Sequence to fold (445 residues):
Amino acid sequence: MVRTPTLWEETAALMGGVAALPEDVSALEALAADLPPDAASLLKGFTNPHYVKMSIVGLKIFNTALTSILERRAQGKKVAFYCFNFPRELLDAMDMAPVCTEAAGIIPVLALGCEQYIDAPINAGLPDSICGGHKASVGMIIEEAEMKPDVIINAGPGSCDPNAKLHEWMAETWEVPIFNLDAPYYHDERSFQYYRREFRRMVEGLEGVTGQKVDYDRLREILENSNEQVELYWEIQELKKAKPYPLSNIYCVLVELMKYIWSGRPEAVEYFKIARDTAKDLVAKGEGAFPNQRARTLWTYSGVYFDMELFRWLEQVGVAFVQDCFGWYPDKVIDTSSIDTMIEGLADRTLNQPMTRQHKGAWDGPAGWAEDMMFLSKELDIDACIYSGNLACKQTWGCLRLITDKLKNELGIPTLRLETDILDKRITPGSVIKEQIEEFISTLG
Fold:
């Protein structure tokens, strides 16, 4: 009897085909024309002619990451589920198979559009108010026994309640150990000291439960790559200030996925170098990544990920996706001279991850949502903000009006409010979102 490929295996096969393409926009467009609608939409988001090389490298990394996890699992490596705001570098240094819970669902559903995986957790009794990214990941496990974890690491408590509770549910359902990192309410030195102790406790517990020790020589090597990514990221942040805007809109999405699924690997460094070099070349020529630019936008929360073609469409109507909250990484280079400095550096980075940084405490506190959005709006000379209101994210809906009023009253920047889900296109279809954005941009003058 022939075994039906799992969704991950199907996605890896699709990405393998993309990885074999020449670095030419016509090749991407030709492949997209032969694919089902969801897969075609995914590829069309990557067709900015200036950034085809960057896009192909990013798609190759999707393929490499997926096949690496499948290979490691086949080799008997421990599978570790971790949420997106946890540094995968540590798990790589423990020779595990790290699986970012959100990316595990988002990448295959983007490629193959399998809404039944989003529905499966609801049918299993979970509330429909949780995030589509989480529902897809759990749904694949429920429906296909795709990849059950040996251990779960959760950095969500304090910043994302649905994230935290869903990881607890997975741990209870599959009877696997879970480590919860408790984020402090404040963002001062005392808070960082507390979180460093939490992080050390987690590392010790993880080693004890899995029997896998941290290879600190390997961690040092990984962090050297990760540090290079950080330096390149900051170079690109400076290039973002140029007018016309010199980056493809898809850059922001790929930055997030580099952090979630492949941070600390040489291929991710290559991605950042290509993005940096392409942007520098355009700035030197006085050109933008796309013509007729009308507005520089800051997305004050996440993007809309179920329709990747949206990012290319924004370029075609002259809208720059300059920054979003999920792509804001105020990271520092980690001192790799000792075990202590490496662990402390990883802990500090984790506390500064998106959502953990902005939503663990008061909306207007130090390093809070308001402070970061105000800073980015001024630093990047933003014309308009867009809030993509994921239905599960009560912590942002609850203070949205306070943020939008502050941006409008102090900086004169208006905000468009979208009601959507990051992954489930049935909540608000892409066509409706495009209409809302077009109408909003037309009011800017």
User: Anything to note?
Assistant: DSSP finds 20 helices and eight strands in the chain. Residues 216-239 form the longest helix (24 residues).
